[in-house]
Amino acid sequence: MDIIEDLDWRGAINQQTDAEGLKKLVNEKKIGLYAGIDPTGDSMHIGHLIPFMILKRFQLAGYHPVILVGGATGSIGDPSGKKAERKLQTMEQVKHNEEALTKQMTKLFGQDGGFTIVDNYDWLSKFSLLDFLRDYGKVFNINTMLNKEVVSSRLDAGISFTEFTYQILQSMDFLHLFKNNDVQLQIGGSDQWGNITSGIDLIHKMEGSEAKAYGLTIPLMLKADGTKFGKTAGGAVWLDPEKTTPYEFYQFWINQDDRDVVKYLKYFTFLSHDEINELAEKVKTEPQKREAQRRLAEEVTKFVHGEKAVEEAENITKALFSNGIKNLTVSEVEQGFKNMPSVEISSEPNNIIQWLVDDTKIEPSRRQAREDVKNGAVRINGEKVDDVEATINPKDSFDGKFVVVRKGKKRYYLARVTK
């Protein structure tokens, strides 16, 4: 099975400019291919990850991926998928975002080479306005550009000349990489079809109609309930561990619906067809075990954050379900309780009743605190405390930084030592 057949099996192909020609080319040579991302933010989220998973598959199959971080195009804004003009960022912000995204890409594609990261600012910034208009503006037909969905969808709301020219700049990128990096294939989301085909048209005009340049887009990712993939009640799921902790990242994947999990295994893991088919069968026969979800969470978290992050996420998950909280590390407590209610406390020891009422305000009154403690409804760092004379000493746990309180079956609080 070649790389195109594998992508087709995984449901990862939406459109191809010349399916037969591309299939023949990838079986003849290890081509260069690229996907781009504009530095509009300082982290990718999992929606951004989709085209780069395809690039990674090509890399693992021996092809050479080129990752374009658009320092130039990111400074003007891609109209694709947008109903209104993007707000322009300062060049300082663009540069900061570009450095952050480059670091993420390097982690995903490896420290040992086998890929190239480029910045289109390096070549697009060298064109003067006259050069741009004479050498490139002249070969783009306005009527054709207006008919591209990326532009036509914005005509009623309005589109600036700046964003209108975006498809020309992206086309120039493809031409530059075709000539200088042996790139013959551009990968993108379904909303990039117009930009990709414009690039191929430019290559054919500049390099001749026989030039072998191709485009491939990926289907829009939707969940089984029809909603957009990658969004949660708390917002986007980021690759930056400071924005979305590895534990939260792991939990996102492990909580996927049975109806979606096999699709995500195909898209987001590098498991073999046999392994995925076996997990798909278990979804049908033993859905309660959620083996497919666990494997999905393990594989994607390992790819993005590494083995250690998987171990930490699994430790936190087990601790929360088995009261093994005292065995967690400080880092694991930070991750596991990031979004749970928190209070600030001093490091001074205190009687548990006074601590629950006065120090933390977790309990509304001493009477209620005594009742809950006597009834065994209070756990401190995973251990049941039913002695109203017990002392809580924050210095005894988690390097003196935290005390974890559970009240009842599910209500957790994180007490942070701040003084």
From TrEMBL:
Motif ('KMSKS' region): 228-232
Protein keywords: Aminoacyl-tRNA synthetase, ATP-binding, Cytoplasm, Ligase, Nucleotide-binding, Protein biosynthesis, RNA-binding
Protein localization: Cytoplasm
Chief location bin: cytoplasm
Record InterPro entries: aa-tRNA-synth_I_CS, aa-tRNA-synth_Ic, Rossmann-like_a/b/a_fold, S4_RNA-bd, S4_RNA-bd_sf, SYY-like_C, Tyr-tRNA-ligase, Tyr-tRNA-ligase_bac-type
GO molecular function, one term: tyrosine-tRNA ligase activity
Catalysed reaction, written as an equation: tRNA(Tyr) + L-tyrosine + ATP = L-tyrosyl-tRNA(Tyr) + AMP + diphosphate + H(+)
Enzyme class name: ligase
Residues spanned by motif 'HIGH' region: 39-48
EC annotation from Swiss-Prot or TrEMBL: 6.1.1.1
Binding site for ATP: 231
Domain of life: Bacteria
Binding site for L-tyrosine: 34, 166, 170
Pfam families: SYY_C-terminal, tRNA-synt_1b
Domain RNA-binding S4, chain residue ranges per copy: 351-414
NCBIfam families associated with the record: tyrS
PANTHER family attached to this UniProt entry: TYROSINE--TRNA LIGASE, MITOCHONDRIAL, TYROSYL-TRNA SYNTHETASE
Subunit-level organization: Homodimer.
Functional note: Catalyzes the attachment of tyrosine to tRNA(Tyr) in a two-step reaction: tyrosine is first activated by ATP to form Tyr-AMP and then transferred to the acceptor end of tRNA(Tyr).
Family: Belongs to the class-I aminoacyl-tRNA synthetase family. TyrS type 1 subfamily.
Protein name: Tyrosine--tRNA ligase
Gene field: tyrS
